[in-house]
């Protein structure tokens, strides 16, 4: 049996990074900094119009059945398209492209559904009520 001494114990204040175990790879997020620490990835700020497009799109999608509220989906589509154009023009300084796309999709869907509801209501009144 070997005698354990301070000389053969690892240093407690060593902050050197450990090598990954066999079969495992090193973490990919961030980049290595001096001293063995990892930085966290920095995300660009989300464009406000992208968030506006998403919120208006979801609200109008929920309220499409009221006919006129569904047509506010046009606002979501316009805001989403403008946000995507500005996000692309920013060359990575702004984020939120996914939110802008979601706003465009939900806004367009709300407009289509409200058109169907408006047609059904007008058809019902034109024919004089239920058949």
Essential attributes:
131 residues, mainly alpha, 3 helices, elongated
Explain the layout of strands and helices.
Blueprint: H1 48-62, H2 73-89, H3 97-127
> How would you classify the helix and strand content by structural class?
mainly alpha
**Rg over C-alpha atoms, rounded to the nearest angstrom:** 28 Å
What general form does the structure show?
A: elongated
The percentage of residues in β strands lies in: under 5%
Query: Helicity, in percent?
Result: 40-55%
Mean pLDDT figure: 80
Low-confidence stretches: none
Query: What's the total count of β strands?
Result: 0
Count of runs of 4 or more consecutive helical residues:
3
Question: What does the model show?
Answer:
- By secondary structure, the chain is mostly helical.
- The protein has a domain at 48-127.
- The chain is built from 3 helices and no strands.
- This is DUF4190 domain-containing protein.
Quick summary:
This protein is an all-alpha fold and 131 residues long. Helices cover 48% and strands 0% of the residues.
